[in-house]
Amino acid sequence: MGDGRVAVVTGGSRGMGREICRDLAARGFRVVVASRKAPACEELAKELAAEFGVEALGIGCHVGHWADCDALMDRVLDTWGRIDVLVNNAGMSPLYPSLGEVGEELFDKVIGVNLKGPFRLAVRAGEAMAAGAGGQIVNVSSVAAVAPAPGELPYATAKAGLNAMTLGLARAFGPTVRVNGVMPGMFRTDISKAWGQDMFDRAAATPAGRVGEAEEIVGAVRYLTGPESSYTTGSILKVDGGAVWSPA
C-alpha cells in the first residue's frame, strides 16, 4: 500500500494517465491529478477519494509553462510536505501538413509539453525526493523516440530527449531516487481518435496484432514505482506490442 506516500501524475485526467492514477489510488497513495483542465482533474480526484478512500487533489497545470510546473510542485509540497512518485505522462503530438509547414509556435509547444515541462517537474521532484526519503520518477516516452516518422518528428525529437534526460537524472539523483521511462507504442487514447485507418493497419501488423488499451500501461508503471524494481534505474521499458526493436 502507499502508506501515505504522495504520487503526482501529469496528463492524469484521461487516457493512460487516468488509469495510472486509479492504480496508484488502489495502492493507497495520495494522488495528485494534474492536467491543463482543472475541472476534469478535480472530478477524477473526487472519484478516487470516494472509491479508494484516499486523499486526492486535482490541480490545473500546463506543463509546457515553467511557472505552472513550479506552482504544481509548490502546491504539493505545501499540502503534504513530500513527493514520492512523479509520473510525467502529459504529452502532445499535433498533426501538420508537411515538415516545411511546421511553424516555430507548434515546434516550441511540442518541445515544451513533452520535454521542457517534464525536465522542470522531474528536477523539482527529484530534489525534494533526494532531500527526503527518496522516490521514483517515471517518464512516459514513446517508441517514436527510436522509430521516428515524418508525421511526428517534433514529437519524436522531444521524446528522444526525454529518454536521454531519464538516464541523466538517474545518475544525478541516485541512489535514493530511481528514474526510469516507459516507452509506449500505439495505444487507444483520446489522441487515437484522430488516427486514420493506416495507423490501425500498422497496429494489426505488429506481433500483438492490435493497439494497446490504456489500462495496459499500468503494469509497467506499477513495477517501476514499486519495491520489485529496487535495482532498476536509468531504464526505458518498451510497451508496444512488439512494434519496434530498440537496444533501449
From TrEMBL:
Pfam families: adh_short_C2. InterPro entries: NAD(P)-bd_dom_sf (IPR036291), Sc_DH/Rdtase_CS (IPR020904), SDR_fam (IPR002347). The keyword Oxidoreductase applies. Coiled coil: none annotated. Keywords: Oxidoreductase. PROSITE patterns: ADH_SHORT. Belongs to the short-chain dehydrogenases/reductases (SDR) family. NCBIfam families: PRK07231.1. This is Glucose 1-dehydrogenase.
